[in-house]
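The methods section describes the discrete structure representation at length, but only in general terms. Since the whole study asks how a given chain folds, the encoding of that fold should be made plain. An entry of this sort, consisting of the sequence and the corresponding backbone structure tokens, reads as follows:

. . .
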Amino acid sequence: MADDGDGRLRTEGSSDGGLGSGGAGEPPAGTAAAVVGGEMLLNVGLLALALLAAYRLYLRWGTRSGPGGEARQSQAAALPRMKRRDFSLEQLREFDGARNPRILLAVNGKVFDVTKGSKFYGPEGPYGIFAGRDASRGLATFCLDKDALRDEYDDLSDLNAVQMESVREWEMQFKEKYDYVGRLLKPGEEPSEYTDEEDTKDHTKQE
């Protein structure tokens, strides 16, 4: 506090000419906090918009399986659990729910069997574009169109830290909900040899 000459007390950094604790020319201490708070509100707002868009897609497409979709779901439910194996991008594309009733997709280099979620990842589902593909970029950027897909191996090196954290979070969610069936191979990488014992042990661990 300081006396302003006419008997009134004012706080340092007030609008009548006082200086903030940082000295002349510096903004009041609350300004930085306001900027940070504004950025946080913007991030929260963007996340809310993304979630709203996803929810609208769910409302529009999530329950639209149609007669053909119901048949595919029944067929998918009868499929045995897939044995562990690794996939190239070309091999992964076969499992798109159309050419093959089993639906696989990759997230952060891991391949998951999402067949039981065919109403979301099947041909008529809201995320059907990711079936048989590497979904990492689309999930990281909330992009549900062809811009999120790469025909060549995508190392995700151009994604920022927030987007990469989002990819890792999606990977954890898929691990909790769906069967992990193997790795997405990089160009020139050889597939691993999985024994029946390893396969059974890992499936038991997931359950």
Notes: Confidence is low (pLDDT under 50) at residues 1-24, 58-67, 203-207. The first helix runs from residue 29 to 61.
